[in-house]
Amino acid sequence: MEVDERYQNSPTSRDKLPSVNPLLGQLLDGVIDYAGLFPPAQLGLEDAFGEFQSLPTDVAWLADLFVCPSNKLAELDALARRKGVDGLAVSVIGNPVESPDKALASFERDIQRMEGCANLEFGAYEVRIGHHGEGGVARSIKALDRSGILDLVDDAYVELGWPGGLEDCLHELAAINPEFGAKARTGGTTADAFPGIEQLALFIHTAVNIEIPFKMTAGLHDPLRHWDESLSVHRHGFLNVCLAGLFALAADLSTAEIGDILAMESPDALELGGEMLIWRGHQADEEAIRLFKDWFGGFGSCSITEPVDGLKKLGYWTA
What we know:
Layout: H1 22-28, E1 32-34, H2 45-53, E2 63-69, H3 73-82, E3 88-93, H4 100-115, E4 120-128, H5 136-147, E5 155-159, H6 166-176, E6 181-185, H7 197-209, E7 214-217, E8 226-228, E9 233-235, H8 238-251, H9 255-262, E10 270-272, E11 277-279, E12 282-284, H10 286-295, E13 296-301, H11 305-313
Parallel strand pairs: 1-2, 1-13, 2-3, 3-4, 4-5, 5-6, 6-7, 7-13
Antiparallel strand pairs: 8-9, 10-11, 11-12
Helix pairs in contact: 4-5, 5-6, 6-7, 7-8, 7-9, 8-9, 8-10
């Protein structure tokens, strides 16, 4: 079979060429799961696949998994086979669970789809679980646990939305299976898709305190929080989120202090040293970053170039 040279290597297998402060590079290494199939980019499968596989070597180190809905896995597997790509690292987006009674069947259907893909490797499974009556969330999570999904993937993340009682839901998740992670939606194509600072700070604080993995998705295209005139909403920054999680873990921050990092619109309070990242006197070294990365699953983004452009504007990208 003739192999298109553009597709021979996945970004995560290339030589990494960080162009940032070494500690910041460690923090951001593999932090983006590429979601080009999703809005606002919403590329076709072949275009998104080509974009992911042909990332320039100086930015490819930021990328980790290719995000794909479960109903497109067979198509993606066939495309990878045609392009001569074996072992494409994928994060699977499962069908949203609308009813606890149908949860197990939905998870088993997704598992069957995954088992039929020989050219894909599954790094993660992500699914949104709705809130349907008392005990509905716990029933759906228990169904996910019974499905045996962790036999197929390294990590599984449950998106719970932004309900009242978020802390209780996260505690239920940890009680059912502490290996399950939590996923927070941090934006979208409308203003109401963006959670407030207080909500996001509570999510991070709770996840860190009960020691469950967590990740983010959507809206994190720029490093720092800023006002989006087109949507009339403040957008969260991916650097805010990473630093908030890092210092929450390294310095045992309060929810309010985590919120202060999430609210940061200027890099003035952040010091980038050779051996420490420092925020308001709190320090995080290489070991603290390594520990944080063990818990943090990164964030989904339909763009890699926008985050890079944002880092360049801040002067954090030297190339």
